[in-house]
Amino acid sequence: MSAPKKVVLAYSGGLDTSIILKWLQSEYGCEVVTFTADLGQGEELDPARQKAELLGIKPENIFIEDVREEFVRDFVFPMFRANAVYEGQYLLGTSIARPLISKRLVEIAEETGADAVAHGATGKGNDQVRFELAAYALNPDIKVIAPWREWDLTSRSKLIDFAEKNQIPIAKDKRGEAPFSVDANLLHTSSEGKVLEDPAVDAPDYVYQRTVHPEDAPDTPEFIEIGFEKGDAVSINGEAMSPANILTKLNELGGKHGIGRLDLVEGRFVGMKSRGIYETPGGTVLLEAHRGIEQITLDRGAAHLKDELMPRYAELIYNGFWYSPERDMLQAAIDKSQHHVTGTVRLKLYKGLARTVGRWSEHSLYSEAHVTFEDDAGAYDQKDAAGFIQLNALRLKLLAARERRLKG
To answer: Tens of pLDDT along 280-293?
Structure first.
């Protein structure tokens, strides 16, 4: 690959990406553009601008953008229509943020005339795959630079030395070994590494940042109502809200009640297993509510097919194939299924759990007349079940008869 002339860097303002910024300048002698996304990580982003300027980036080459609404509307909500969960538990909080960041990297590269993009993902993880697959899907000619796969700064001490030699500010707590690494956005926090690397050892309490311990959550349950239109949450307790504001409010409610903690050993796409501590308070409440409204509005055949498709859909997102034809095809089927997923769900939040306790909708398929134990006034003839059972039993009876005959 020829040396890039101008690179758009996914820049957090932290130590690692600041080192990458300086390394790109010194290694390639190229102009650097920084992109910092406000995905709801809960951090002040002005310091990222100040640090980029300190490292010689021109003001016009510093992009800091609030993409929270786009993130939830165009990425999180479509994923939640599918009830997507990876390996039975993980709500894909990191995975779903990467295609949006890559999208903006590629767009900014086009806007600024840059010929390359760069990211700070390591060569051991999934994020390198997600960033790069998305970038190539959006621009097949883009160059992607992954410094962690190129440089010889292979330890924390070497990174610190590089920073000090290049006058890169280092927070005091960065001079020692970090206890664990954190990725955060509006959907979740993800903590990995160091004190969490032994899966046999319970995660320290200080790892958790968004949720109180369920044992310390309020002793009184809280009831909330979430309104849905075509599979997307549109209101909380009757108040219409934007997608990002809904997730923000659900994070507050879920975190208060200790909801959404997960200690998971997962199978990375690159082949190894890793242990992560995830907190997805609002997403956990939202998933329970979405399944609750689907219970009365989604036909059994459609619901069961969705559940069959979901693991494949979740795996595509986890592995970085958001911008793939197969994900688009599955999304079209999922979105079609949501046409009547409209109504309201009532949930009970208590001691780490979100539980559906009521659901109602003008689009409901639930018929009390058909399921009642009282007189159904002719809505359902129970005698019809006999023929239904006999027809479904026919092949089983033939199989059993053959077994008896052969044993005969």
So the answer is: 999 999 999 999 99
Which residue ranges make up each domain of the chain? 6-67+95-178, 183-298+340-360, 368-402
* CATH architecture of the domain with range 183-298+340-360: Alpha-Beta Complex (3.90)
Q: Which residues are catalytic?
A: 16, 98, 127, 181
Residue 332: CA count within 13 A, CB half-sphere: 5
Total count of residues recorded for the chain: 408
325-337 and 300-319 helices, crossing angle to 10°: 150
Residues 286, 233 contacting (CB under 8 angstroms) = yes
Give the tokens for residue 89: 């538990």
Indicate the range of 132-141, 164-173, 321-330, 363-372 predicted with least confidence: 164-173
Q: Which value, to the nearest 10 degrees, does the dihedral of the CA atoms of residues 131, 134, 137, 139 take?
A: -60
Q: Per CATH, the architecture of 6-67+95-178 is what?
A: 3-Layer(aba) Sandwich (3.40)
Judge if pTM exceeds 0.85.
yes
What pLDDT, in 10s, does the model give residues 26-73? Answer: 999 999 999 999 999 988 898 899 999 999 999 999 999 999 999 999
